[in-house]
Amino acid sequence: MKTDTRTDPNKTSLIRSINQVGIRNEANIWRRLSKELSSANRNRIAINLSHINRVSSPGDVIVVPGKILGAGILKHKLSIAAESFSESAKEKILSIGGQCLSFEELIKTNPKGTNVRLLK
């Protein structure tokens, strides 16, 4: 039987630290994010900017446990944290005044996870 072990030590420590922050601050959003990140790579999601534009409003903070792709147009300013961004997505987000954040940066600024939406 194959064991469920991660080969990337950086990702393993990231998942563990996100989960610990969630437990310490009683923030279910971070515990749920760590669970999503620990799923199999084949289940990882990719979300286009057009989808984010439809489901968000100006000033939202969005977390995606996967990759952000640049298809579509983003019409309002957002802060988005994701595992990775395509170059075109990053350019479009920054051009309208939004922010592209890593998970660590978002957790440092908002350890309680208030007003953060998880998209999957």
Q: How far is the N terminus from the C terminus?
A: 29 Å
Largest sheet: 5 strands, parallel
SSE order: HHEHEEHEHE
Number of DSSP-assigned strands? 5
| Low-pLDDT ranges | none
Task: Explain this structure.
The chain has 120 residues and is α/β, with parallel strands linked by helices. It has one domain: Ribosomal Protein L15, Chain: K, domain 2, CATH 3.100.10.10. The model has no long low-confidence stretch (mean pLDDT 92).
In short:
This protein has 120 residues and is α/β, with parallel strands linked by helices. It has five helices and five strands; from the N terminus they run ααβαββαβαβ.
Question: How does the SSE layout of this entry go?
Answer:
Layout: H1 9-24, H2 28-37, E1 45-48, H3 49-55, E2 61-69, E3 79-85, H4 87-95, E4 99-101, H5 103-109, E5 116-118
Parallel strand pairs: 1-2, 2-3, 2-5, 3-4
Helix pairs in contact: 1-2
Task: Provide keyphrases for this structure.
120 residues, 5 strands, alpha/beta, five-stranded parallel β-sheet
